[in-house]
Request: fold
Amino acid sequence: MKFFADTSDIDEIKDLADYGLLDGVTTNPSIIAKSGREFIPLIKEICEICDGPVSAEVASTDYATMRKEAEVLRKIADNVAIKVPLTPAGLKTCKELSDDGTMVNVTLCFSAGQALLAAKAGAAFISPFVGRLDDISYQGLDLIADILTIYDNYPQYDTEVLVASVRNPMHIIESAKMGAHVMTAPPKVIKQLYNHPLTDKGLAAFVEDWKKTGQSIL
Ligand code: E4P
Reply:
């Protein structure tokens, strides 16, 4: 499973890269607003740190403006993935950009039917939002299973399932069990995967016992 960081925080992105946990980055207008930084230079900086796909989202909702914004965004770097919303305008933009060899991440997916449309539009990634479905008492992970089943039936689709709106390690583990290609999560959630109380307890015991030996490896 590829790990994307759902953040625009440069320090967090560098940190994950140092630990070998960074295969890509996703941003959205809310993340950019939170950063307080100028959008285009920020995406450029992220693309210099991360070799993998870096999602930069269009801001307009009408096709003509969205298409122009996509042209600006795709010139930032070769690894920019243009993020478009799952709307008719977004999917039309997706089809044109994909036909032209540009990666597109179709975002705000909440149904299997929407995911089918994105695959037909040639999306590189479909982003189903599991956490936001859980928030309204739907099983977000069921959507991942449905999309994977549908895509498996049609090997001609190259679209990767990018599990988004990830809120906890179980979202990652359950999606990985199903074979989802990618997940994007806040760095804090990615790092929660390290945690287990028996690891902490076991390590504390090993450290204490090692001291008793009076030895040093170095
Ligand atoms: C994905 O690309 C989105 O940016 C993100 O996962 C949304 O997550 P949220 O529902 O926690 O805002």
